[in-house]
Amino acid sequence: MTVSGEAHAPSYYAATAKGLINFPALESDARADVCIIGGGYTGLSAALHLSERGYSVVLIEANKVGWGASGRNGGQLHSAQRREQSTLEKWFGKKHAHQLFDLGEEAKALVKSLITKYEIDCDWQEGLIHAMHKRRYLSDMNREIDLLQKDYQVKDITTFSRDEIAAALGTDVYYGGWREQSAGHLHPLNYALGLARAAHFAGARIYEDTAAIEVSESDPPRVKTAKGTITADAVILAGNGYLQDIHEDTESRVMPLHNFILTTEPLGARADELIPRREAAADSRFVVYYWRLTRDNRLLFGGGETYGTTFPNDIKNFVRPHMLKLYPQLADVKIDYAWGGTLAVTMKRLPYIRRLRRGLYTSCGYSGQGVGTASFAGKLLAEAIAGEAERFDVFTKLPAPPFPGGRMFRSPTLALAMTWYALRDRL
Ligand SMILES: Cc1cc2nc3c(=O)[nH]c(=O)nc-3n(C[C@H](O)[C@H](O)[C@H](O)COP(=O)(O)OP(=O)(O)OC[C@H]3O[C@@H](n4cnc5c(N)ncnc54)[C@H](O)[C@@H]3O)c2cc1C
User: Fold this and answer.
1) 353 ligand 1 Cβ < 6 A
2) How far is the CA of 127 from the centre of ligand 1 (A)?
3) How confident is the model at residue 413 (pLDDT cuts 50, 70, 90)?
4) Distance of alpha carbon 243 from alpha carbon 247, whole angstroms
């Protein structure tokens, strides 16, 4: 059963949220051109882009808009796709890899343009560093950078030696890395709330505390909620890692993973000793560490993952040892917030975007790279519904096999596999 009627997680983001709009619950039947299930980046961006094209849109969110991963994540806006270009070329050939790269870059540009166009106050800051935690990863890293610079004309990369990355990140645990200027970080909940406002003013009807409990097999599909039925020509499933018991096939192709973040107390001048140029950072671990400074000089650090159905009881002390591996000098610092969120990964770590049948669309499984990709997927869904599916189809061609065990048994199988990979981080 979908979780519904919940307030925002007790995060740093909720504590610093700006311009929250409380949308009503849906109390009766409704009719729209498009019904969207889920109020994260995917659903909100689809609502905005469809409304701008003149479609009537009803978006239903089981909790609050931005309640899911979109309001809880690390806020890092990455380039291209979740997989390296060398891997994409090997899997799909150069032409498709280049298309995916171009659309990934467009996703990054879209987020920045939405922030500007709708004046979304979400602390956007350029610069992102990739840090290698094993010496043996450096040769692959250099090969990938070479490919990006020569074949993809990427111009904004700076590579770091061991000393340089220590200076950039205030920790000596990394062997090297690279920085890109055009990627960066933002306040994810304020960005989601900005999208919601933009969609609302563009004419989308948004309802909170309204869960879809069933999507019918009919053509077009009808969406049932506790208080009514929504009739629409097209339905978009945008529940990502939180979608439950709505569409078995979609759910069997993504795996919900829980990931955790803490935020320290404000660090004042000490913050500059950690990340003097205030980039975001992510490292090469399989269970990735990601961190950055907030506008008010806190360290926001993500690390640690669980694969079962529950969160750890004490999230602060679940994440803190990971942070101290990089920054033992912060042992005396108070942790003000700690929270968890659920993302969805696919077997190939590439998004699952499909027209499932006439009038039914799904988009999910961004595998930890959803700030850009989910925002962009919303735009692609709007294009596809308007009959312009060329760019949408660059993604629909990507393979997304179901997880072994399907929807019911995917967790235990994955937990075993993930634990093995997480162990490899330590070898
Ligand atoms: C801890 C964490 C850190 C992350 N860090 C990053 C990062 O730094 N950079 C990055 O690019 N990505 C990151 N991600 C991933 C990114 O947050 C997601 O890919 C992205 O937010 C997905 O957006 P979405 O709209 O598809 O899903 P969500 O934001 O999860 O939204 C889905 C919404 O659907 C609603 N819903 C579900 N079922 C129903 C239903 N039946 N009826 C009505 N509503 C329903 C849920 O309540 C939820 O609000 C992170 C994720 C997590 C959890």
Assistant:
1) no
2) 23
3) low
4) 8
